[in-house]
Structures are given as structure tokens and as C-alpha cells.
Amino acid sequence: MESKSLGAVDPSVYTDLTELSKLKALAGKDEKAALREVAQQFEQVFMNMMLKSMRQANEAFAEDDPLYSSEVQFYQGMLDQQLTLDLSKAGGLGLAEIIVKQLGQSITSGTGETESTGVSDLMFNMATRRVASHSLSAVDEISDQLARERVMSTSTQVSESEETSADRSIDTPQDVTFNSPAEFVEVLMPMAEKAAQALGVDPKVLVAQAALETGWGRSIIRDQQGNSSNNLFNIKADSRWSGESVGVQTLEYRDGLPQPERAEFRAYKSLEAGMNDYVDFIQSNPRYEQARELVEDPVAYLQALQQAGYATDPEYAAKIERILGGTSLAMAVSGSQEG
Fold this sequence. Notes:
Layout: H1 17-29, H2 31-62, H3 70-89, H4 95-103, H5 119-132, H6 138-149, H7 181-199, H8 203-214, E1 245-254, E2 257-266, H9 271-284, H10 289-292, H11 298-307, H12 316-324, H13 327-338
Antiparallel strand pairs: 1-2
Helix pairs in contact: 1-2, 1-5, 2-3, 2-4, 2-6, 7-8, 7-9, 7-13, 8-12, 11-12
Protein name: Peptidoglycan hydrolase FlgJ
Subcellular location: Periplasm
GO cellular component, one term: periplasmic space
């Protein structure tokens, strides 16, 4: 039986133009086989991107882990490559099958001849455009796009509106850039203290939750024009919301597994407006009644939020607790108070 080494991702998947030429030649003989090969390779690239995005989401609290280092990141990357290969060989996510089903309709069932725009040329041109334009990595190209639209994998689970609305730019919103946890805490703590008085929680709980949701302010949702949504808690825009909203791709956990979805999120004119809306959201929503009764206990409050369905990530409360008790927040708060 033919076997292939699983030690690393085969570079022919998306960097070797010679291999792309071989795919084109294969498509001339058996377009269906070539289409399936391209679809499987694309699925590997997609899964690698998904794992990379999940690793980036964890960086919000990894700074406090004494075992976290560049060496660990290197071996995690190797593990992700191995996992990608194993998943693809085990059937993958089903994406390859969908691609084959959709593009396979363009392949004629006769002698193998196609229309003037053949599937072989189509697949080859699509692949070479991704590989040859500016760099030889399709992953880099797509990752850059995801970085502009990515939201943390722990996005808020609120009932979504039935209708799908287009992305709308935000009318001259406040836009603040954060370069460190210290800057994030310095800006947010005064707002959190006011909001905490109304809600009854420790202001550090609000800062820690916002830090997880936005990666210490580095991943606040933005619209297509690059304007900040100022949504610190990734609250979704359902039918009850009449303000601005921004549509982005996000990761939601279904049956314990992350799945990419598109969702609409609320947008505000300022960070303070986003903080205040979080308080109103918690206070006015019946599902968080138990959480409101536990505001004096940060751990119990966060666990009650998760149990009520605030987020789909099964580790949501635990992640915030780690940030709350971590050195990054403690040092940032200390520096803010000294300043």
C-alpha cells in the first residue's frame, strides 16, 4: 500500500508551481480526480488557518503562562500541521466534498471535453493566482484578510436576527489603538469603575472579560472601512438592537467543536458607550438573572454568565478567571494606579 510521510505538510499543497502544472495535466486526463485533489488541498489550507486563528485567540492569556515560549509556539505549529494532515486523511470537515459537489457540476459527463472555460484551466488559474501573486503562500494571503475581520473565538452567543444585513460603516466612531495590556487597562479602568457601580461587580471583572473578548483591545471588531465597532464584549446584534452593526466571520462552538459562522455584532460611537451597553444588556436580559444575583462573587458571576449561554466556548468562564488572576492584569492595574 502506498504511504506518505506525515511529518510535515507537503509544500506541494500550495507553494510549488511545478505541482500545480502536474495538477493541470491530471485535469486534462481526469478532471474529477484533479478537482478532488485540489479540494482536499484547499481544505488542508483552511484547517491550518483555523488552527492558527485559534492559537492566536489563546495569546490573550498565554502571556501569564511560564511554560509559554517561542519554542512552544514552534512545536505547536508542527503539531497543528500534523493534526491538519490527520484530519484531512480522516475525512476532514466536509469542505472538500462541498467544493467537489459544487464545482463538479461544471464537468461534463461525456468524453471529458468541457466548455470553452475548462475546469482544468479554471482550477489552475485559481491556484496560480493565489500562489504567484506577491508571495508563494495562499495561507498568508487569506490570513491577512482574516486578521482584518477576525473576532475572538469566544464571541457572545446571543439570539441572532433572522434577516441577514449587509455590512454598514460606522459614522465617525471613536477609534483607540492598544499596544499593550497596560494601555488597555489604563483606558478601560475608569469606564469599568463607573459601569461596575451600576452592575455591582468588581471593575477588574469587566476589564478581564473585555480583554478576553478583544485580545487586550487588539482584535476589536471593525467594519469593512476599518472603523472600530467599539464592541468590547462582542455582543451580537439581534432583532432587539436598532443601532449600527458590523458583520464578520467568527468561530462558534457547536457540540464542543468550533465552527466558522457569519454574525452581526453591535457597533457603538465610543468605548464607553460599548461598556454601558454591556451593563444594560446584562441588567435587562432575564436569562442573566442568576448572574445578577452573584455579582459580589466574580467566579460565580462568570460561571453563571456561561451557564446562561453568554458564550458558546465551554472554557469561557475559566479563561476569564485566568486573566483575572494573571500577572498581566495585576501589573497593568498596578501601573495604572501608580500613574
